[in-house]
Amino acid sequence: MLDRIADPRGRRTPYGPPDAVERLAAALPSHMRDALPSVIRLGSPWPVRVDVFLEDGLAEQQVEHWVRAVSAAGWGGDAIDLAVRGGRVAGVRGRAGDRVNHGRLDPREWHAWQPRAERLTRPLVREDGRLVEATWETAMDRVVARSRELLARPGGWGRLAFHTGTRLFLEEHYTLAVIGKAGIGTPHMDGDTRWGAAAAAAALAASFGADGQPGSYTDVDHCDALALWGHDCTASHPVLWERMLDRRLGPGPPAMIVVGPEGTAAAGEADVHLAVRPGTNVALLNGLLHELIAGGWHDAAYVAAHTVGFERLWRVVEAYPAKRAAEICGVPVALIEQAAEILGAAERLVSTVGQDFLGSNQATAAACQVNNVHLLRGMLGRPGAGLFQLGGPGCDALEAGSAADLPGLRNWADTGHVRELADLWNVDPAVIPHWGPATHAGQILRYAEEGSVGLLWITASDPAATTPGLDRILGREDLFVVVQDPYLTETARLADVVLPAAAWGERTGTVTGADRTVHLCEKAVEPPGEARTDLGILLDYARRMDLRDRDGRPLVHWTDAESAFEAWKACTRGRPCDHTGITYERLRAGGIQWPCAPSSSHGVERLYAGGRFATSPGHCQTFGADLATGAEYGEERYRTGDPGGRAFLHAAEFEPSPEVADDQHPLVLTTRRAPRRFPVRLARLGDAVPEPCLEVHPGDAAVLGVEDGDLVRVESRLGVLEAVARLSGGRPGAVVLVLDGQGEAVTRAAEELTLTAWDAVSRRPLRTAVAVRLLKAGRRGDASLDEGLCSAAAHLGRGAAVRPEVTAAAGGGEAPERYEEV
User: Fold this and answer.
1) Same domain, 102 and 217
2) Which of 79, 517, 599, 647 could form a disulfide bond with 95, CB atoms 3.0-4.6 angstroms apart?
3) Per-residue pLDDT at 513
4) Are residues 75 and 204 in the same domain?
5) Which domain holds residue 445?
């Protein structure tokens, strides 16, 4: 099998940009494109290349049938077909005609579909401190009884909370949102999107009025400049990276700017690489914005007609000439000037923003400054002018409302939006939580720790595997924990009730990818044992709870995935994420982008054509917040300064990271995930795992007397760990912990080592940089590395929780499996 991580340039299919006529055709609305003569090529020029991964010894002609699905390895929205043989998935194939991946597969795709150990097949309940198998009737009776008991107490709606992962389908997210927000009325709904996509969504809403990626993947075909802000696309979005590489290798290649650490494939490919100091992203962007404005490289007419805030933006960035920005960021001033020239001269710019921006100091503010680049240049809403805030999976949770936001990208502070939902669901508006911002995931856990939340329902997520100290919270006697998952995860082991759910490929539903493309994923095989679909579990809970609207009819009135999708469509009518023109029948022909009204044949490929934004009062998703403090501005202030459909140019002063180097801790540590061949690592306890690797600059290593391969001890103010030193050509004063398949111990040690801070606007936890000192711990082989690794919990003397026993469930008599998410 070809390893395109080890050889990202293998099997390349170089191509050039469309011609002028094709670019003009691509800019037309879909109904006008349909009327063009067939001689004009309307599709992407990116060549098709169909990748196929099959079980060893299996030929394509031996596949019994192929079932349409969506990538399980990433969240870009790659369309795939599942090979079914003998009632199980035996391979995957990229879908040639799909608009997203043109037949290509994420290199990790096949491994994402491999059978995993500890699959749950029957419900589990806790008896005498042990999880034992039970019937569905027993398990659901316990969940419903505890729910009703809590709801009967004063303020009972605030005693139930939901933490949801990103692997649900849109229909399941929406069903959960209706149960939680209209049936129970709890504001405590959030999940894994808070750790990933929250800052991206907050930045998009702050600048443009609503969440939703402005661009289309086809913008890579048209662009003459690519800017990658804070991520290695090879590791995070390999199919998108292949598209970029193919353009770079074809005629008329786009220039490339990369902001991020040394040593990545993206950094090696870049024409200009800016390895800025961790946490200085706002200073860099302020310097680039200064150069664009001072150099006359902005579209003054577009800015005047379609934006607000230019004067204040200039007042702020005027103080950040390239020289000052270079000093703050620790990069040569010439590189900032070169990057500004590429940004300023580009006719069609595509930007992608990743985790080194969205999970770093001033996350939302930094992402907004990238939005400002596109607004100043008028680089939105036309072919080749694309912007992607790639915060991670979770589009469906954010749109459908199972996370903190209201469904349909509605504004919790807009009483009109609340009334719309109340009318749609036929409930009293007072039931829908809208008296303040929804509770974010970290605060939900705090409430659980304090005892005000009495039931925490965790679906499709394993937060205990990556959140230090969560085992102590979930182990509280007064907290009833429900876990709904296909596997016996670390979190499931701590639950009071475990509900076995169907996995990817065992149920039907829709998924939204990074460029707003909706795909249908159809059931290919049966779930094992008594496992049920997530939708089926939620529908059963709503029925048992007897949730009804104010006329006494069932609140959740749909019965399967397609009817749930139809209910969701009604919720989106007239909203920025309008799905009313999408049907399962149409999705069986291929992915469709939202918004898509019934009159549209393809959906809207690019948002904000003509400079029309979702910022009008009554339409916007947010009334805005201060980027420095996160304080909400409120409706009155927003309506007073009505932007009238124009975008916001948000200015932000650079604020140094609260974690800075000093004499005691003279180095700054960041973490980086290496490109992975496997999306999920499964290792039995006691198995060997890759050694944690710490990249150290040779100059720093020489001062410390550290040689390549030495064992070094990394100490922060919060914790310690040990790793093998690798001398690299990175930045002096910075060390990088490379996470590449290590197990739970190393992952938790890294989490506990780093500083926990919060982004002011998105409330996303930030763990990207921490001041540390290094001590040489010996030569590799002098002592067991496993013995050397230790977590901050042990270092600070905090006791580890005893793992609950499991009997008669998913191999309870064997050593448990260890799971690590990418």
Assistant:
1) no
2) 79
3) 94
4) no
5) 124-195+395-506+525-561
Q: Are residues 679 and 718 in the same domain?
A: yes
In a domain, residue 570? The reply is no
Share of the chain above pLDDT 90, in %: 69
What would the two tokens of residue 654 be? Answer: 């650079």
Tell me, rounded to whole angstroms, the distance of Cα 283 from its chain centroid.
Answer: 25
* pLDDT on residue 9: 47
Q: What is the DSSP string of 565-600?
A: HHHHHHHHTTSTT--TT--HHHHTT--EESS--TT-
Do the domain assignments include residue 191?
yes
Find residue 119's DSSP bridge partners: 487
Would you say 317 and 289 are in contact if contact means Cβ atoms under 8 Å apart? yes
User: Rounded to 5 degrees, what are φ and ψ at 511?
Assistant: -135, 140
Q: What is the pLDDT of residue 799?
A: 29
Q: Are residues 84 and 167 in the same domain?
A: no
Residues 186 and 201 in one domain: no
Asked whether residue 712 is domain-assigned, the answer is: yes
Q: Read off the pLDDT of residues 113-144 as tens digits, 9 standing for 90 and up.
A: 887 888 999 999 999 999 999 999 999 999 99
Q: Where are the alpha helices (DSSP H) in 114-264?
A: 136-151, 170-178, 198-208, 219-222, 233-236, 238-249
Letter for the amino acid at 701?
A: A
The number of angstroms, rounded, from the C-alpha of 266 to the middle of its chain's C-alpha atoms is 20
Residues 551 and 422 in one domain: yes
Residues 58, 191: one domain?
no
pLDDT tens digits, one per residue of 768-803 = 678 899 998 877 555 444 444 333 333 322 223 333
- pLDDT (tens digit, 9 = 90+) per residue, 495-508? 999 999 999 999 99
* 541 in any annotated domain: yes
Same domain, 360 and 241: yes
Q: Identify the CATH number of the domain in which residue 291 sits.
A: 3.40.228.10
C-alpha distances in angstroms, 706 versus 692, 702, 709, 728, 773? 16, 6, 8, 12, 13
Distance between CA atoms of residues 520 and 530, nearest Å:
24
Q: Which residues contact 316 (CB under 8 A, 6 or more apart)?
A: 286, 651, 652, 653
Alpha carbon of residue 218 to chain centroid: 21
How is 230-243 classified by DSSP, letter by letter?
Answer: S--HHHH-HHHHHH
CATH of the domain at 734: 2.40.40.20
- Distance between CA 695 and CA 674 in Å, rounded? 12
Q: How many domains does the chain have?
A: 4
pLDDT tens-digit series, residues 331-356: 999 999 999 999 999 999 999 999 89
